[in-house]
Amino acid sequence: MANKRKSQRLWRGLASLTASVTALAFVGTGMVNSFRTDIDKFLGTSSTRLVTDEEDEGEKYLYTSDYASTTELVQGIADLGERMQEEGTVLLKNENGALPLTEDEKSKVSLLGFSSYYPVQGGDMGSSLTPNSGTDADTVDFVGALDAKGFKINKDLKDLYAALLPNFQTEIDNWGNVSLVNSITAPMIGTPFTSKEPSQSMLSGENANWKDTLKSNNVLIVTIARAAGENRNYMPGEAGVDPAQKLNQTDPLGLSDDERDLLKAAAEAKKANGGKLIVLLNNASTLEVQEIEDNADVDSILEIGLPGGYGFYGVCDVLSGEVNPSGHLSDTYAVKNSLSPAAQNYGFYAWTNADDANYINSEQIEAEGIYKGYKYYETRYADTVLGQGNADSKKGSIKGAWNYDNEVTYPFGYGLSYTTFEQKLTSVNVDLTAKTVTATVEVKNTGEVAGKDAVQLYVSVPYTDYDKENHVEKAAIQLLDYSKTGVIEPGASETVTITADAQYMASWDSLADNAKGTKGTYILDAGDYYFTVGNGSHEAVNNVLAAAGQSTDGDAKNVQTWNLGALDNLTFAETKNGTKVENQLVDMDYNYWEEGTVTYLSRSDWDGTWPVTYENLTANDKMMEYLDNDIYEITSDNGELPTFGAQNGLTLADLKGVIDLTDERWSQLMDQITLEECLIRTGFGGTSTKAIDSISSPEAVQNDGPNGIYSYPLGQYANKDKESGDPCAIDEKDKNAGYMCGVMANETVIAATFNKELVHEYGVTMGNYSLWANLPIYWGASANIHRLPYNARNHEYYSEDPMLSAGMAAEFVSGGKEKGLIVAIKHFAFNDTEINRSGIATFMTEQAAREGELRCYQKSVEDVGTLGVMTSYNRVGVIADNAHTGLLTNILRGEWGFKGLMSEDFIMDPNYVHLKEAVVNGVTMSCNTGDNTMQAVSEKYPYWTVKNVEKDAVLTNALKQVMTYQAYALANSNAMDGYSSSTHLEKVNTWYDNLFMALKVIFALLTLLNLVMYVRATNKKEA
Amino acid sequence: MSQRKISLGLIFTCISAVLALLGCIFYVINTKTNYFAGNGVSTPVIACLAIAIVCMVVYVIIGMRGTPVWADILPVASSALLISGLMNFASARINGIAAVMTFENNAQNMADLKSAIIGMVLVGIAAVVSIIAAFFDVTVEK
Fold this sequence. Notes:
The structure holds 2 protein chains of 2 kinds. By secondary structure, chain A is an alpha/beta fold. Chain A contains 31 helices and 31 strands.
């Protein structure tokens, strides 16, 4: 009996084991199907293949690469990375021609500061550097670049810092893993900045004679760094600094005593040994560096940004004079950032009735209105000169009456060169019929070194009594457009013609009557318009003030004026596609919900309207109706239902390159799609747009950016079938298959080039990369405005100025488009902070919204026709960005005419995804992933069922429309390369499918066997 | 009637049942957290864990007097159900985990995630212990 029971136990136990593995295999198969795309990405496998009929002779490849091999490609990227940095490095100070270095000086370099050896080359998270080694274009740090460019550095000092490495390593929390990195890092949300610069005693403790080594290596380069990163933030003032450090640091973007001591030691060494002291600013957020500027011992200051994988080659070229610096600042360097009006409302301001379950967490009121960055500093300066608007109030002042010289270290647009240039604005023609402003500028190199120069065209528009009465604000100076010269030899000149879009000097007037018979339109005030050029915004405003008869340093002769006799509210009453404009964002004004709560800053009274901090606010009942994330009610009998599931015999490949959406083949094709496909694909759009059988739409893989297409190695999705006819197929053993493309300098560097052609080239280069890597969708053109330098994610955005941002984003998109790459603009819109970025309610005036952040994107849509948009996490007022009809439907798709795919950002909470509202407002996909079944999508979004949706004409038509936009974007991209009319997808079993199948069969049989053996043991008679 | 004494099967099954119950409680707690509340409650997770626990409890009660042959299917079923519950639990949380670990990484979300991780670990251990328990009887004759 005992033996019998023993056998039963054994077979029962084994049955339990094998049954468990069988269950794991069956449930695991379901999981695999849910995350198949991500698994394929991770493993480098493919679950589908393209099959084209042999007799099909249609053109399969519309786009061709400019490179013959991956070697040429990656070396082209490296070359571009170097040139981008050369033009984006900004020379801020250069006393006595300290730079460039001589050949002799190149061999006497001492690098000081641990960031010289371990610099910030990309974001801590987001646009991080992807180091490459063993490829045809390996990435380098500063030391590596110096070595490659023939510099000789102080080895003792290098060894000293290497020995100290454990002391300034920083813990970084990414992907849930805490790891040690060698460079300085940006603070996570809610944590303060910690300085890591070694103290003098630490340096001397490691090598007591380190200062002696500077005698023969007396070219002293000190690097001051601040990191950047997604989901990171600097808090203004001392609240943002680690209180335990006691380093006399008053702001995370200001200097610590350890950094001051380092500069002091370098200055003393220079005095003792001769030589030069050069400071590199390794940053994306502007730093508080007035004390470095004032330090007479510091010869030169260079802003190098975050140089990426090849940028340090460019920095070396600038140091050596191989290249003449031509970068200009993309942001204002304020003496004290926390005193700006925007900083008065920057932080975590929780609703008193917060409800985290619905992401109702905090609010942020941008009470500074249009006065961000230089538009604040220069306008207030102008008003102090003009003696108006209480501009000399103490509010926002460092000390006493507000004085520009006390407040700004380097203005927006400022930058020096090794030569001198003279720019003359020779003519300006304003043509309101053509809606253009054409300016001609003569640029002459008046120095002794060849170089390029940035031409910045500014305008000062009239600020009138009408504006004051109607709450229309006007910056005293604003960048209208810009250009970059070629290399101009000493004594030579170049004529630059800029044709600017005149709509960008118009102002939004929320109270004006419009052509639609409602309120809100763009206006041009009556009065004098001043156009000028200058080395930055301050020189420009001084020119204008001089022309207006004020006594300033400006050059009145370099100003052209144009007079408008009467207020014009008609020229820009319709957008380029003929849509009549009207107020769309009035609900972004907090006063719309709670009248009289917020006072927005006005230049009519700087003192009386200076922003107070809006905190401890309570969302009222009306606001809560929208904050609860349930806005659109699914209904029925509300219109004509669309056609689904027709058999018209078309495939998406038949529409390749068809840009006319009114072509009837589009409607015929989209009639074939099923409602189920629409529901699944809008609900599950994350990481790639999946294949749609009914229209033979392929899977198109998405990539993050903007510092390159870096989500996957070059070879992961590359076509490795050289016999396929794909001109960009690579060899299985391609040396560059593991190359990762997160290598470009960050966007502040790109903006600082002021070179649209160069950025266009970057877009083309990424387009080429996408052809080789088979990666057609790129979330690459981040264009959120730099509201404040405290947003640690500024490294992924261009500038505080919308027109500089707009020009760069549009050229990048345009360049990519040439090669069929969908370069999407993001994060549309108002993702101004990483604090509570999911759920934060962002408030501002419609004028501030339209003339600030929205202009950063407008050009990319209206002029270039971007095919992709990524929305943002935040709320627009109290309505989630993805559910805001005014922003997405009426402005983006309506006024601007956007036709293309639109993805939500990485929102994972189905409630906050707002799927039904998002689809109704033109969003084509959420970022979630899941199995290609209605069951899976309905489990995620319970209301997202065929039964629930099929009778709602508004929703079903919207579903079909957004899928049409998505198909349109793909048809006009390189996602369709390799496809012709007969091409269709076939499912293939990957190795892991086979593994799971084998597991299921084997373990099911084993379970059966164990059960049989159990029965046999049970029936067995005891001996 | 023969006298019976407790065997390892009872201990392991009880441990497994308690762990499964705790895992289930942590799952329910997790579904109430701010971050995961919007994901709802997964019926397969609750069903698998609940049925597994019931199987184990019934198995123990019956086994105290000697396990009839038909009841030997219960530990087999409970193990397979616990594994199924664990996989469904993980499947329901993978997207959230990815988001919290990356784009929505903050102290509150990490705290919300913790109960999910603890729950999954508990259910995983419960499944392993349940398989081990299946090799032993609840009681044996003295």
